[in-house]
Amino acid sequence: MPKECCAVNCSNLCVRGSGLSFYIFPADLDRRNKWIAAVNRKNWYPTEHTVICSEHFIDGQKSNNQFAPNYTPTIFQRVDSPMKRKMEAQVADFRRTASRKRRIEQTEITDQQKKKAKETRMQELAESSKRQEEARKLEEERRLKEIEEQQSLEEERKDVKKMRGRDC
Questions:
Q1: 42: closest CA among 8, 74, 91?
Q2: pLDDT at 111
Q3: In this structure, are 43 and 93 located in the same domain?
Q4: Is the entire prediction scored with pTM above 0.85?
Q5: What's the whole-number mean pLDDT along residues 28-53?
Q6: For residue 87, what are the CA distances in angstroms to 1, 56, 58, 72, 115?
């Protein structure tokens, strides 16, 4: 047997293909009491099988964010149209704020990534510069050794020439 929405004057049934969602009352006592107060039935308490349909939530679905207007069911036949519009405006404001926060967070993450990438590039440039300096020093040392060897060879030749000149 399909479950029926517990809201007064609501006859929505929990059946497949209805396009509605049905929610059981929360286990959290504080939130559960808010839902019971919203249903506003005298001397009534939900069982573990009691459900409420998505039509009683501003956005058509419940929210687990306690600051969201659709944290508790608020749309009932006893609620007049201006109140519903006000609540829908609250949901829109909440969404805009949440969207803005996400964009800001994403921007901060992107900025952090850019900063990290820049730091990495700077490190790579510093390391590259260091390697180039080391290579330059090695090349300079090699040239100095070549010059010293050439000078040493020149001195040996001169010595050999001097020795030959004495022998004659």
A1: 8
A2: 81
A3: no
A4: no
A5: 91
A6: 34, 12, 7, 12, 42
Residue 35 and residue 9 share a domain: yes
| Same domain flag for 73 and 122 | no
Retrieve residue 31's tokens: 């939130």
Which phi and psi (to 5°) does residue 60 adopt?
A: 85, 5
Please say whether the beta carbons of 41 and 7 come within 8 A. no
Torsion angle in degrees (nearest 10) through CA of 93, 96, 97, 102: 160
* Residue ranges making up the domain that contains 45: 3-79
Tell me: do 67 and 98 sit in the same domain: no
Nearest-angstrom CA–CA distance, 90 and 97:
10
Least Cα distance to 26 among 76, 66, 84 occurs for: 66
CB count in 10 Å sphere of residue 83: 13
Q: What size, in residues, is the chain?
A: 168
Q: How many domains does the chain have?
A: 2
Residue 54 makes CB contacts below 8 A (sequence gap 6+) with 20, 21, 22, 23, 60, 61, 62
139 and 167, same domain (yes or no): yes
Same domain, 165 and 85: yes
